[in-house]
Amino acid sequence: MSPPPPLEVLDVHQEFRRLRQRLVALDGVSLTVDRGEAYGLLGPNGAGKTTLVKVCLGLSRPTRGQVLLRGLDPAHPRARLRVGYLPEGHRFPAYHTGVSALHFFGRLAGLEEATLRRRIPELLELVGLSDRARDRIGRYSKGMTQRLGLAAALLDDPDILFLDEPTDGVDPLGRRHIREVLLATQERGTTIFINSHLLSEVERTCDRVAILKSGRIVREGSVEELTRPTLRFRLRLAHAPAWPLPALPGVELAARNGHFEAAAADLESLNALVDELRRQGGLIAELAPLGSDLEEVFVTLLTDENAAAPGARVGTSGERP
Ligand SMILES: Nc1ncnc2c1ncn2[C@@H]1O[C@H](COP(=O)(O)OP(=O)(O)O)[C@@H](O)[C@H]1O
Ligand SMILES: [Mg+2]
User: Using a 6 Å cutoff on CB, does residue 19 contact ligand 1?
Assistant: First the structure.
C-alpha cells in the first residue's frame, strides 16, 4: 500500500462563538497535499488561512470534519514528528542571538546537542544569517527574523513544512531569499504548505494553489491551470446595436460598466460575434484580450459575488445565514 499523503483536509468546519453570535471561519474545506509538493493557500485577510493551519497542526479542533497528517490525527504527538511550522508574525525573545534561539528551540524539539552543533551552522548558512549569528535578535530586521524563523522551522529536518505568511512585511530582496530557501527545501523532498495573502509569493513558489474566500475554497489547481488563457475579451462599442443580441452558440456576452465582457468557446465563435455585431450596425471601438494572470483570477474571484460562498459570516446561533 502506498503511504498516506502528507496532508488531507476533509470537510473541515470551524466556528467561533462571540457572545451569542457565531462566526464561520472555515466552511467545509477539503484538500489533499501530495508528497514533495509546494501547496499554496491564497486568500485575503480573514479568509480563514491561519485557522486552517492551526487545525492542520492539531493546535485547534475543528467544529466538524477531519485532518490527517500522514494519515494520523494531528493531535497525536507522533503525527507532528518532523513537521515544521513557521507561525504568522512570530516573535523571538529579543535577548536571544540567532544561535541561542535555534539552540533553545532545538532543545525544546528534543534534538540532541551533537545534532544541534552540526545543524545550527548549516541552517544559519542556508538562510544567510551566518555572519549575524551572534547578534542579538533585537537588532534583526523583519526579513532576518523571518529567515531565522524559517531556520527554526527546519531544525528537525521536517518532511512537511507549514508556513503562515512567511514573507509578510519582508522587503523584495528578503522575499527572494526566502523563496530560494523554500525551493532548496522542496528539492530535498520536503512537502510545503504556504498560507499567503500575497499572490506573487504563491505564484512563484507553489506547484498548486487553492484560493480561500470566506472559509471556502473557491478555486484549486496548478498556477498554470488557474491562469490558462481563456478566450475572454473586453469589448467596447462606439455604437451598439439593439440589446440584447440574439444568443450565439459558444459566446457569452455580459454587460459591464460601459463595456462588455465576451467569453468565447473558440476563435470561430468570437468571429461570429464580431460578424453579428457588425451586421447589426455595431461599431467596434475596442476588442482586447482580458489578462489571465493569477492576479486576474484572484481579483475576479474575490470580487465576484457569485463565485463564492456567503462567507466568513456572522450569524445568529443555530441558523444558517
Ligand atoms: N480564536 C478565535 N476566536 C474568534 N474568532 C476567530 C479566532 N481565530 C480566528 N477568528 C476569526 O476567523 C476568521 C478567519 O481568521 P484567520 O484564520 O486568522 O484568517 P486569515 O489567516 O486568512 O487572515 C476571522 O474573521 C477571524 O477574526
Ligand atoms: Mg492569517
Answer: no
